[in-house]
From TrEMBL:
Subcellular location: Nucleus membrane; Nucleus, Nuclear pore complex
Record GO biological process: mRNA transport; NLS-bearing protein import into nucleus; nuclear pore organization; protein localization to nuclear inner membrane
Pfam family, one: Nup54_C
Gene that this polypeptide is encoded by: Nup54
Protein name per the record: 54 kDa nucleoporin
Top-level taxonomy: Eukaryota, Metazoa, Chordata, Craniata, Vertebrata
Quaternary context: Component of the p62 complex, a complex composed of NUP62, NUP54, and the isoform p58 and isoform p45 of NUP58. Interacts with NUTF2.
Length: 525
Protein backbone atom coordinates (compact mmCIF):
# COMPACT_ATOMS: atom_id res chain seq x y z
CA UNK A 1 0.00 0.00 0.00
CA UNK A 2 1.23 3.50 -0.79
CA UNK A 3 0.21 6.92 0.47
CA UNK A 4 0.60 10.25 -1.26
CA UNK A 5 -0.10 13.09 1.14
CA UNK A 6 -0.50 16.46 -0.54
CA UNK A 7 2.27 18.19 1.40
CA UNK A 8 4.59 15.27 2.14
CA UNK A 9 4.71 13.28 -1.11
CA UNK A 10 5.16 9.85 0.51
CA UNK A 11 4.86 7.39 -2.36
CA UNK A 12 5.22 3.62 -2.18
CA UNK A 13 3.80 0.62 -3.98
CA UNK A 14 1.38 1.91 -6.64
CA UNK A 15 -0.87 -1.10 -6.14
CA UNK A 16 -2.98 0.94 -3.75
CA UNK A 17 -2.67 4.71 -4.03
CA UNK A 18 -4.26 7.25 -1.67
CA UNK A 19 -4.17 10.93 -2.49
CA UNK A 20 -5.13 13.11 0.45
CA UNK A 21 -3.98 16.38 -1.06
CA UNK A 22 -7.43 17.90 -0.87
CA UNK A 23 -8.98 15.53 1.66
CA UNK A 24 -10.39 13.61 -1.28
CA UNK A 25 -9.31 10.01 -1.80
CA UNK A 26 -8.97 8.50 -5.24
CA UNK A 27 -8.58 4.73 -5.39
CA UNK A 28 -7.51 2.46 -8.15
CA UNK A 29 -7.96 -0.95 -6.55
CA UNK A 30 -9.54 -2.58 -3.52
CA UNK A 31 -9.81 -2.28 -0.60
CA UNK A 32 -10.37 1.47 -1.23
CA UNK A 33 -11.83 4.22 0.96
CA UNK A 34 -13.28 7.22 -0.77
CA UNK A 35 -14.36 10.52 0.70
CA UNK A 36 -16.18 11.60 -2.39
CA UNK A 37 -15.01 10.09 -5.71
CA UNK A 38 -17.04 7.59 -7.63
CA UNK A 39 -16.05 3.96 -7.22
CA UNK A 40 -16.17 1.59 -10.10
CA UNK A 41 -15.30 -1.66 -8.37
CA UNK A 42 -17.62 -3.93 -6.46
CA UNK A 43 -17.23 -4.17 -2.73
CA UNK A 44 -16.07 -0.53 -2.45
CA UNK A 45 -17.00 1.71 0.44
CA UNK A 46 -19.17 4.55 -0.81
CA UNK A 47 -18.22 6.78 2.08
CA UNK A 48 -19.94 10.00 2.80
CA UNK A 49 -21.13 11.58 -0.40
CA UNK A 50 -20.60 8.83 -3.01
CA UNK A 51 -22.38 9.76 -6.18
CA UNK A 52 -22.24 6.43 -8.00
CA UNK A 53 -22.64 2.99 -6.51
CA UNK A 54 -22.36 -0.43 -8.09
CA UNK A 55 -23.80 -3.77 -7.29
CA UNK A 56 -22.01 -5.65 -4.57
CA UNK A 57 -21.65 -5.58 -0.83
CA UNK A 58 -21.09 -1.79 -0.79
CA UNK A 59 -21.27 -0.11 2.60
CA UNK A 60 -22.49 3.50 2.40
CA UNK A 61 -24.04 6.08 4.68
CA UNK A 62 -25.42 8.07 1.73
CA UNK A 63 -28.36 7.36 -0.52
CA UNK A 64 -27.18 5.48 -3.65
CA UNK A 65 -29.36 7.60 -5.94
CA UNK A 66 -27.88 10.94 -4.96
CA UNK A 67 -26.13 12.29 -8.07
CA UNK A 68 -23.95 15.34 -7.71
CA UNK A 69 -25.00 16.05 -4.14
CA UNK A 70 -23.18 16.05 -0.86
CA UNK A 71 -22.96 13.11 1.44
CA UNK A 72 -24.13 12.23 4.91
CA UNK A 73 -23.46 15.60 6.48
CA UNK A 74 -23.89 17.60 3.30
CA UNK A 75 -26.40 19.86 1.62
CA UNK A 76 -30.14 19.88 1.29
CA UNK A 77 -30.58 17.03 -1.23
CA UNK A 78 -29.09 14.39 1.02
CA UNK A 79 -31.51 12.08 2.77
CA UNK A 80 -29.19 11.67 5.74
CA UNK A 81 -28.27 14.25 8.29
CA UNK A 82 -28.04 17.80 6.96
CA UNK A 83 -27.16 21.14 8.41
CA UNK A 84 -28.24 23.64 5.80
CA UNK A 85 -28.64 26.85 7.75
CA UNK A 86 -26.09 29.40 8.85
CA UNK A 87 -25.10 29.75 12.47
CA UNK A 88 -23.21 32.61 14.03
CA UNK A 89 -23.25 36.36 13.59
CA UNK A 90 -23.41 37.64 10.06
CA UNK A 91 -23.00 35.39 7.04
CA UNK A 92 -22.17 31.78 7.81
CA UNK A 93 -19.48 30.15 5.73
CA UNK A 94 -19.57 26.43 5.26
CA UNK A 95 -16.55 24.47 6.38
CA UNK A 96 -15.30 21.27 4.89
CA UNK A 97 -16.25 22.16 1.36
CA UNK A 98 -15.37 19.51 -1.12
CA UNK A 99 -13.66 16.61 0.52
CA UNK A 100 -12.95 15.12 -2.87
CA UNK A 101 -15.17 15.84 -5.84
CA UNK A 102 -18.32 14.21 -4.56
CA UNK A 103 -18.46 15.29 -0.91
CA UNK A 104 -19.43 18.95 -0.64
CA UNK A 105 -20.08 19.30 3.06
CA UNK A 106 -21.48 22.72 3.78
CA UNK A 107 -20.99 22.48 7.52
CA UNK A 108 -23.25 25.01 9.15
CA UNK A 109 -23.08 27.23 6.07
CA UNK A 110 -25.92 28.40 3.92
CA UNK A 111 -24.83 26.61 0.75
CA UNK A 112 -22.94 23.44 0.04
CA UNK A 113 -19.55 23.92 -1.53
CA UNK A 114 -18.58 21.75 -4.49
CA UNK A 115 -15.09 23.20 -4.90
CA UNK A 116 -12.26 20.72 -4.64
CA UNK A 117 -9.56 21.89 -2.27
CA UNK A 118 -6.19 21.56 -3.93
CA UNK A 119 -4.08 21.90 -0.80
CA UNK A 120 -5.59 20.91 2.50
CA UNK A 121 -4.41 21.20 6.03
CA UNK A 122 -1.95 18.39 5.46
CA UNK A 123 0.02 20.52 3.00
CA UNK A 124 0.96 23.20 5.52
CA UNK A 125 4.74 23.65 5.87
CA UNK A 126 6.96 23.44 8.91
CA UNK A 127 5.57 20.15 10.20
CA UNK A 128 7.45 18.62 13.13
CA UNK A 129 8.32 14.92 13.18
CA UNK A 130 5.72 14.30 15.89
CA UNK A 131 3.06 15.94 13.72
CA UNK A 132 4.21 13.90 10.75
CA UNK A 133 3.87 10.67 12.74
CA UNK A 134 0.47 11.77 13.99
CA UNK A 135 -0.58 12.48 10.42
CA UNK A 136 0.61 9.10 9.18
CA UNK A 137 -1.11 7.32 12.07
CA UNK A 138 -4.34 9.20 11.36
CA UNK A 139 -4.18 8.28 7.68
CA UNK A 140 -3.52 4.64 8.58
CA UNK A 141 -6.46 4.58 10.99
CA UNK A 142 -8.77 6.09 8.39
CA UNK A 143 -7.66 4.13 5.34
CA UNK A 144 -5.76 0.93 6.07
CA UNK A 145 -5.80 -0.32 9.67
CA UNK A 146 -3.96 -3.60 10.29
CA UNK A 147 -5.42 -4.44 13.67
CA UNK A 148 -7.21 -7.72 12.83
CA UNK A 149 -5.63 -8.73 9.52
CA UNK A 150 -8.85 -9.66 7.73
CA UNK A 151 -11.90 -8.04 6.14
CA UNK A 152 -12.93 -6.62 9.50
CA UNK A 153 -10.19 -4.02 9.14
CA UNK A 154 -12.23 -2.39 6.35
CA UNK A 155 -15.21 -2.06 8.72
CA UNK A 156 -12.87 -0.69 11.39
CA UNK A 157 -11.60 1.88 8.90
CA UNK A 158 -15.16 2.99 8.23
CA UNK A 159 -15.80 3.28 11.96
CA UNK A 160 -12.65 5.35 12.40
CA UNK A 161 -13.77 7.62 9.57
CA UNK A 162 -17.12 8.14 11.23
CA UNK A 163 -15.42 8.96 14.54
CA UNK A 164 -13.13 11.42 12.76
CA UNK A 165 -16.15 13.09 11.15
CA UNK A 166 -17.85 13.42 14.53
CA UNK A 167 -14.63 14.56 16.21
CA UNK A 168 -14.71 12.12 19.11
CA UNK A 169 -13.42 8.65 19.98
CA UNK A 170 -10.24 6.69 19.37
CA UNK A 171 -9.02 5.22 16.11
CA UNK A 172 -7.40 1.79 16.50
CA UNK A 173 -5.26 0.71 13.57
CA UNK A 174 -2.26 -1.31 14.86
CA UNK A 175 -1.62 -3.60 17.80
CA UNK A 176 1.81 -2.12 18.46
CA UNK A 177 0.89 1.58 18.18
CA UNK A 178 -1.36 3.57 20.47
CA UNK A 179 -4.73 4.54 18.98
CA UNK A 180 -5.29 7.95 17.45
CA UNK A 181 -7.34 10.34 19.59
CA UNK A 182 -9.99 12.07 17.50
CA UNK A 183 -10.97 15.53 18.72
CA UNK A 184 -13.09 18.24 17.21
CA UNK A 185 -9.92 20.04 16.17
CA UNK A 186 -8.93 17.29 13.74
CA UNK A 187 -9.11 18.27 10.04
CA UNK A 188 -11.79 15.69 9.26
CA UNK A 189 -14.31 16.92 11.84
CA UNK A 190 -17.43 18.05 10.04
CA UNK A 191 -19.00 20.13 12.82
CA UNK A 192 -17.16 23.35 12.12
CA UNK A 193 -18.31 26.70 10.89
CA UNK A 194 -17.09 30.26 10.74
CA UNK A 195 -19.02 33.06 12.40
CA UNK A 196 -18.25 36.68 13.03
CA UNK A 197 -17.62 38.51 16.27
CA UNK A 198 -17.62 42.23 16.97
CA UNK A 199 -14.17 43.67 17.58
CA UNK A 200 -13.85 45.95 20.64
CA UNK A 201 -13.16 49.60 19.91
CA UNK A 202 -11.87 50.62 23.34
CA UNK A 203 -8.35 51.92 23.68
CA UNK A 204 -5.81 50.74 26.22
CA UNK A 205 -5.92 54.17 27.86
CA UNK A 206 -9.62 53.64 28.70
CA UNK A 207 -8.51 50.97 31.18
CA UNK A 208 -11.58 48.72 30.74
CA UNK A 209 -11.22 45.20 32.14
CA UNK A 210 -13.98 42.58 31.98
CA UNK A 211 -14.64 40.30 34.95
CA UNK A 212 -17.05 37.39 34.51
CA UNK A 213 -18.74 36.33 37.76
CA UNK A 214 -20.53 33.04 38.40
CA UNK A 215 -23.39 34.95 39.99
CA UNK A 216 -26.68 36.42 38.86
CA UNK A 217 -26.99 40.02 37.82
CA UNK A 218 -29.43 40.81 40.65
CA UNK A 219 -26.91 39.60 43.22
CA UNK A 220 -24.13 41.64 41.64
CA UNK A 221 -26.21 44.83 41.54
CA UNK A 222 -27.46 44.41 45.11
CA UNK A 223 -23.87 43.93 46.38
CA UNK A 224 -22.10 46.28 43.96
CA UNK A 225 -20.66 48.49 46.68
CA UNK A 226 -19.26 45.52 48.61
CA UNK A 227 -17.81 44.20 45.35
CA UNK A 228 -16.05 47.50 44.66
CA UNK A 229 -14.60 47.50 48.19
CA UNK A 230 -13.38 43.91 47.80
CA UNK A 231 -11.67 44.74 44.49
CA UNK A 232 -10.07 47.78 46.14
CA UNK A 233 -8.68 45.53 48.87
CA UNK A 234 -7.34 43.11 46.27
CA UNK A 235 -5.52 46.03 44.64
CA UNK A 236 -3.76 46.69 47.94
CA UNK A 237 -6.15 49.18 49.50
CA UNK A 238 -4.15 52.10 48.14
CA UNK A 239 -5.99 55.35 48.79
CA UNK A 240 -4.80 56.82 45.49
CA UNK A 241 -6.70 54.11 43.56
CA UNK A 242 -10.44 54.16 42.97
CA UNK A 243 -12.37 51.24 41.46
CA UNK A 244 -15.29 52.24 39.21
CA UNK A 245 -17.92 50.06 37.53
CA UNK A 246 -18.49 50.90 33.88
CA UNK A 247 -21.35 48.47 33.26
CA UNK A 248 -23.05 45.24 34.31
CA UNK A 249 -24.50 42.79 31.80
CA UNK A 250 -26.22 39.44 32.14
CA UNK A 251 -24.66 36.37 30.51
CA UNK A 252 -26.09 32.86 29.95
CA UNK A 253 -25.87 30.16 32.63
CA UNK A 254 -26.45 32.63 35.49
CA UNK A 255 -23.22 34.51 34.82
CA UNK A 256 -22.67 38.26 34.90
CA UNK A 257 -20.17 40.44 33.07
CA UNK A 258 -18.83 43.41 35.04
CA UNK A 259 -16.70 46.04 33.29
CA UNK A 260 -14.45 48.03 35.63
CA UNK A 261 -11.70 50.62 35.43
CA UNK A 262 -9.32 52.00 38.03
CA UNK A 263 -8.50 55.70 38.45
CA UNK A 264 -5.14 56.64 39.94
CA UNK A 265 -4.76 60.04 41.57
CA UNK A 266 -1.34 61.61 41.82
CA UNK A 267 -0.19 63.85 44.73
CA UNK A 268 -0.33 66.98 42.52
CA UNK A 269 -4.10 66.52 42.06
CA UNK A 270 -4.18 65.05 38.55
CA UNK A 271 -5.76 61.69 37.82
CA UNK A 272 -5.54 59.10 35.09
CA UNK A 273 -6.96 55.71 34.29
CA UNK A 274 -4.74 52.70 34.78
CA UNK A 275 -4.15 51.11 31.32
CA UNK A 276 -6.20 48.00 30.65
CA UNK A 277 -3.16 45.83 29.92
CA UNK A 278 -1.49 46.87 33.18
CA UNK A 279 -4.60 46.16 35.24
CA UNK A 280 -5.17 42.83 33.46
CA UNK A 281 -1.54 41.77 34.07
CA UNK A 282 -2.01 42.56 37.76
CA UNK A 283 -5.18 40.46 37.92
CA UNK A 284 -3.40 37.54 36.25
CA UNK A 285 -0.87 37.21 39.07
CA UNK A 286 -1.27 33.95 40.99
CA UNK A 287 -2.19 35.42 44.36
CA UNK A 288 -4.49 38.07 42.85
CA UNK A 289 -6.16 35.50 40.60
CA UNK A 290 -6.92 33.22 43.55
CA UNK A 291 -8.46 36.17 45.42
CA UNK A 292 -10.63 36.95 42.41
CA UNK A 293 -11.73 33.33 42.20
CA UNK A 294 -12.84 33.52 45.81
CA UNK A 295 -15.08 36.43 44.80
CA UNK A 296 -16.60 34.25 42.08
CA UNK A 297 -14.61 35.52 39.08
CA UNK A 298 -14.26 32.83 36.43
CA UNK A 299 -12.68 34.89 33.67
CA UNK A 300 -10.91 38.22 33.27
CA UNK A 301 -9.85 39.96 30.08
CA UNK A 302 -8.74 43.37 28.90
CA UNK A 303 -11.18 45.09 26.58
CA UNK A 304 -8.90 46.80 24.10
CA UNK A 305 -9.08 47.19 20.37
CA UNK A 306 -6.88 45.09 18.13
CA UNK A 307 -4.06 46.81 16.36
CA UNK A 308 -3.93 46.59 12.56
CA UNK A 309 -0.93 44.27 12.87
CA UNK A 310 -2.85 41.93 15.19
CA UNK A 311 -5.88 41.90 12.90
CA UNK A 312 -3.65 41.16 9.93
CA UNK A 313 -1.94 38.31 11.75
CA UNK A 314 -5.26 36.79 12.81
CA UNK A 315 -6.65 36.96 9.30
CA UNK A 316 -3.51 35.61 7.63
CA UNK A 317 -3.20 32.53 9.87
CA UNK A 318 -6.20 30.19 9.67
CA UNK A 319 -7.16 28.52 12.98
CA UNK A 320 -6.29 24.88 13.58
CA UNK A 321 -8.50 22.53 11.60
CA UNK A 322 -9.84 25.23 9.27
CA UNK A 323 -8.89 25.02 5.64
CA UNK A 324 -7.12 28.14 4.28
CA UNK A 325 -9.49 28.39 1.32
CA UNK A 326 -12.51 28.34 3.62
CA UNK A 327 -10.84 30.94 5.80
CA UNK A 328 -10.22 33.14 2.77
CA UNK A 329 -13.85 32.74 1.73
CA UNK A 330 -14.93 33.71 5.24
CA UNK A 331 -12.89 36.90 4.96
CA UNK A 332 -14.51 37.68 1.62
CA UNK A 333 -18.01 37.09 3.01
CA UNK A 334 -17.41 39.32 6.04
CA UNK A 335 -20.41 41.73 6.05
CA UNK A 336 -18.44 44.48 7.85
CA UNK A 337 -14.66 43.95 7.81
CA UNK A 338 -14.09 47.15 9.79
CA UNK A 339 -16.13 45.97 12.78
CA UNK A 340 -16.39 42.16 12.52
CA UNK A 341 -13.72 39.49 12.50
CA UNK A 342 -14.24 35.82 11.49
CA UNK A 343 -13.96 33.29 14.30
CA UNK A 344 -14.20 29.49 14.08
CA UNK A 345 -17.04 27.61 15.73
CA UNK A 346 -16.00 24.05 16.54
CA UNK A 347 -18.52 21.63 17.96
CA UNK A 348 -22.01 21.92 19.32
CA UNK A 349 -20.90 23.40 22.65
CA UNK A 350 -19.57 26.50 20.97
CA UNK A 351 -22.67 26.69 18.83
CA UNK A 352 -24.89 26.38 21.90
CA UNK A 353 -22.88 29.08 23.67
CA UNK A 354 -23.31 31.51 20.80
CA UNK A 355 -27.01 30.66 20.64
CA UNK A 356 -27.42 31.41 24.34
CA UNK A 357 -25.54 34.68 23.97
CA UNK A 358 -27.74 35.61 21.03
CA UNK A 359 -30.90 34.80 23.02
CA UNK A 360 -29.59 36.86 25.91
CA UNK A 361 -28.89 39.82 23.65
CA UNK A 362 -32.35 39.45 22.10
CA UNK A 363 -33.91 39.62 25.58
CA UNK A 364 -31.84 42.69 26.41
CA UNK A 365 -32.89 44.36 23.17
CA UNK A 366 -36.53 43.52 23.89
CA UNK A 367 -36.20 44.96 27.39
CA UNK A 368 -34.68 48.12 25.97
CA UNK A 369 -37.49 48.35 23.40
CA UNK A 370 -40.07 48.00 26.19
CA UNK A 371 -38.40 50.81 28.11
CA UNK A 372 -38.35 53.00 25.00
CA UNK A 373 -42.02 52.21 24.37
CA UNK A 374 -42.91 53.24 27.91
CA UNK A 375 -40.93 56.45 27.49
CA UNK A 376 -42.73 57.20 24.23
CA UNK A 377 -46.12 56.63 25.89
CA UNK A 378 -45.15 58.96 28.73
CA UNK A 379 -43.98 61.59 26.25
CA UNK A 380 -47.23 61.31 24.32
CA UNK A 381 -49.18 61.90 27.54
CA UNK A 382 -46.99 64.89 28.35
CA UNK A 383 -47.48 66.20 24.82
CA UNK A 384 -51.29 65.96 25.16
CA UNK A 385 -51.17 67.77 28.50
CA UNK A 386 -48.86 70.43 27.06
CA UNK A 387 -51.12 70.99 24.05
CA UNK A 388 -54.13 71.44 26.33
CA UNK A 389 -52.21 73.94 28.46
CA UNK A 390 -51.11 75.84 25.33
CA UNK A 391 -54.73 76.12 24.17
CA UNK A 392 -55.77 77.31 27.62
CA UNK A 393 -53.00 79.92 27.68
CA UNK A 394 -54.01 81.11 24.20
CA UNK A 395 -57.57 81.70 25.38
CA UNK A 396 -56.28 83.47 28.46
CA UNK A 397 -53.97 85.61 26.30
CA UNK A 398 -56.89 86.56 24.07
CA UNK A 399 -59.00 87.57 27.06
CA UNK A 400 -56.16 89.60 28.52
CA UNK A 401 -55.60 91.27 25.15
CA UNK A 402 -59.25 92.38 25.03
CA UNK A 403 -59.08 93.65 28.59
CA UNK A 404 -55.90 95.54 27.80
CA UNK A 405 -57.54 97.07 24.74
CA UNK A 406 -60.53 98.19 26.81
CA UNK A 407 -58.21 99.78 29.37
CA UNK A 408 -56.34 101.61 26.61
CA UNK A 409 -59.64 102.87 25.13
CA UNK A 410 -60.82 104.24 28.49
CA UNK A 411 -57.44 105.80 29.13
CA UNK A 412 -57.43 107.43 25.69
CA UNK A 413 -60.97 108.74 26.25
CA UNK A 414 -59.96 110.30 29.56
CA UNK A 415 -56.82 111.77 28.01
CA UNK A 416 -58.76 113.34 25.12
CA UNK A 417 -61.57 114.58 27.35
CA UNK A 418 -62.28 118.31 26.73
CA UNK A 419 -60.35 118.42 23.44
CA UNK A 420 -61.97 119.01 20.07
CA UNK A 421 -61.98 116.21 17.51
CA UNK A 422 -58.92 116.43 15.36
CA UNK A 423 -58.83 115.97 11.59
CA UNK A 424 -57.25 112.49 11.65
CA UNK A 425 -59.78 111.35 14.24
CA UNK A 426 -62.63 112.67 12.11
CA UNK A 427 -61.26 110.84 9.11
CA UNK A 428 -60.97 107.63 11.12
CA UNK A 429 -64.57 108.04 12.34
CA UNK A 430 -65.80 108.43 8.77
CA UNK A 431 -63.99 105.27 7.73
CA UNK A 432 -65.47 103.32 10.65
CA UNK A 433 -68.98 104.57 9.81
CA UNK A 434 -68.49 103.48 6.22
CA UNK A 435 -67.40 100.00 7.29
CA UNK A 436 -70.35 99.78 9.69
CA UNK A 437 -72.80 100.67 6.92
CA UNK A 438 -71.30 98.08 4.58
CA UNK A 439 -71.62 95.42 7.24
CA UNK A 440 -75.23 96.35 8.03
CA UNK A 441 -76.30 96.47 4.37
CA UNK A 442 -78.84 93.64 3.63
CA UNK A 443 -77.05 92.52 0.48
CA UNK A 444 -73.57 92.73 1.92
CA UNK A 445 -71.63 90.77 4.50
CA UNK A 446 -74.17 90.85 7.32
CA UNK A 447 -76.96 89.52 5.12
CA UNK A 448 -74.76 86.75 3.79
CA UNK A 449 -73.66 85.89 7.32
CA UNK A 450 -77.30 85.67 8.43
CA UNK A 451 -78.08 83.42 5.47
CA UNK A 452 -75.14 81.12 6.32
CA UNK A 453 -76.23 80.99 9.95
CA UNK A 454 -79.75 80.00 8.88
CA UNK A 455 -78.41 77.20 6.68
CA UNK A 456 -76.19 75.94 9.49
CA UNK A 457 -79.17 75.88 11.89
CA UNK A 458 -81.30 73.97 9.34
CA UNK A 459 -78.55 71.42 8.77
CA UNK A 460 -78.13 70.94 12.50
CA UNK A 461 -81.90 70.53 12.89
CA UNK A 462 -82.18 67.98 10.06
CA UNK A 463 -79.12 66.17 11.35
CA UNK A 464 -80.64 65.91 14.79
CA UNK A 465 -83.93 64.64 13.35
CA UNK A 466 -82.18 62.05 11.26
CA UNK A 467 -80.06 61.03 14.22
CA UNK A 468 -83.24 60.58 16.29
CA UNK A 469 -84.84 58.37 13.60
CA UNK A 470 -81.93 56.01 13.55
CA UNK A 471 -82.05 52.97 15.76
CA UNK A 472 -80.24 49.74 16.17
CA UNK A 473 -81.43 46.43 17.56
CA UNK A 474 -79.04 43.85 18.86
CA UNK A 475 -79.08 40.52 17.01
CA UNK A 476 -79.82 38.51 20.18
CA UNK A 477 -82.60 40.89 21.17
CA UNK A 478 -84.07 40.70 17.67
CA UNK A 479 -83.98 36.91 17.88
CA UNK A 480 -85.81 36.99 21.20
CA UNK A 481 -88.43 39.37 19.79
CA UNK A 482 -89.02 37.04 16.83
CA UNK A 483 -89.33 34.06 19.16
CA UNK A 484 -91.82 35.93 21.36
CA UNK A 485 -93.92 37.05 18.38
CA UNK A 486 -93.89 33.50 17.04
CA UNK A 487 -95.20 32.20 20.37
CA UNK A 488 -97.88 34.91 20.38
CA UNK A 489 -98.88 33.94 16.86
CA UNK A 490 -99.14 30.27 17.82
CA UNK A 491 -101.22 31.21 20.88
CA UNK A 492 -103.58 33.30 18.76
CA UNK A 493 -103.94 30.48 16.22
CA UNK A 494 -104.76 28.02 19.00
CA UNK A 495 -107.29 30.45 20.50
CA UNK A 496 -108.95 30.96 17.10
CA UNK A 497 -109.30 27.21 16.65
CA UNK A 498 -110.93 26.88 20.09
CA UNK A 499 -113.35 29.70 19.30
CA UNK A 500 -114.26 28.05 16.02
CA UNK A 501 -114.98 24.74 17.79
CA UNK A 502 -117.10 26.52 20.38
CA UNK A 503 -119.13 28.29 17.66
CA UNK A 504 -119.84 24.97 15.98
CA UNK A 505 -121.03 23.53 19.31
CA UNK A 506 -123.26 26.56 19.88
CA UNK A 507 -124.78 26.20 16.41
CA UNK A 508 -125.43 22.54 17.08
CA UNK A 509 -127.15 23.40 20.39
CA UNK A 510 -129.29 26.07 18.73
CA UNK A 511 -130.31 23.63 16.01
CA UNK A 512 -131.34 21.03 18.61
CA UNK A 513 -133.35 23.57 20.57
CA UNK A 514 -135.22 24.72 17.46
CA UNK A 515 -136.28 21.16 16.66
CA UNK A 516 -137.48 20.32 20.19
CA UNK A 517 -139.73 23.42 20.71
CA UNK A 518 -142.56 22.37 18.21
CA UNK A 519 -142.72 18.89 19.63
CA UNK A 520 -143.17 20.21 23.15
CA UNK A 521 -145.89 22.62 21.93
CA UNK A 522 -147.87 19.76 20.41
CA UNK A 523 -147.71 17.75 23.59
CA UNK A 524 -148.93 20.58 25.79
CA UNK A 525 -151.75 21.39 23.41
Amino acid sequence: SGFNFGGFGLTANPAVNFNIGNFGVSTTSTPPFNFGNSLASAGAFGGFGTTTTTAGPAFSFSAPSNTGTSGLFGGTQNKGFGFGTSFGTGTGTGLGSGLGTGLGFGGFGTQQQQTTLGSGLFSQPAQTPAQSNQLINTASALSAPTLLGDERDAILAKWNQLQAFWGTGKGYFNNNIAPVEFTQENPFCRFKAVGYSLMPNNKDEDGLVVLVFNRKETDIRSQQQQLVESLHKILGGNQTLTVNVEGVKTLPDDQTEVIIYVVERSPNGTSRRVPATTLYAHFEQANIKSSLQQLGVSLSMARTELSPAQVKQLLQNPPAGVDPIIWEQAKVDNPDPDKLIPVPMVGFKELLRRLKVQDQMTKQHQTRLDIISEDISELQKNQTTTMAKIAQYKRKLMALSHRTLQVLIKQEIQRKSGYAIQADEEQLRVQLDTIQCELNAPTQFKGRLNELMSQIRMQNHFGAVRAEERYYIDADLLREIKQHLKQQQEGLSHLISIIKDDLEDIKLIEHGLNESIPIRGGVFS
